[in-house]
């Protein structure tokens, strides 16, 4: 599981850098400041959670079951949260109206919160 978690962290990190550069260079010319700021929020949260997964992957005292739970909550959370933000921020660039998927953004955010909560609960319930 650790290899899968760290690999996903690396992929999320690489994609965040690519999208950040794309936003800063290519999208800067065609998006409004508000849309660009929204896009950057997606990149920022994806980066945070790439680092979070990396941290989870290298922890040695975290049970595999907890790691698996955190992995799935974080992965699905990033895809829903950051993914929907990318689509909503660039909505004007396509003929499809991505505003109809806007409801998944808070669901993704909730999954990310639950992933952090799973880590917290694991350590609160741990016997010293």
Low-confidence stretches: none
Secondary structure class reads mainly alpha
The largest sheet, given as strand count, sense and whether it forms a barrel, is: none
- The geometry reads as elongated
Strand elements, count: 0
The value of Rg in angstroms is: 16 Å
Bin the helical content: over 70%
Descriptive terms for the model:
128 residues; 4 helices; 0% strand; mainly alpha
Secondary structure elements and their pairing?
Layout: H1 2-25, H2 33-58, H3 64-89, H4 104-124
Helix pairs in contact: 1-2, 2-3, 3-4
Overview of the molecule:
- With 128 residues, this protein is an all-alpha fold.
- The chain contains 4 helices and no strands.
- It has helices at 2-25, 33-58, 64-89, 104-124.
- The protein is elongated, with a radius of gyration of 16 Å.
- It starts with a helix and ends with a helix.
- The model has no long low-confidence stretch (mean pLDDT 94).
Summarize it.
It contains four helices and no strands.
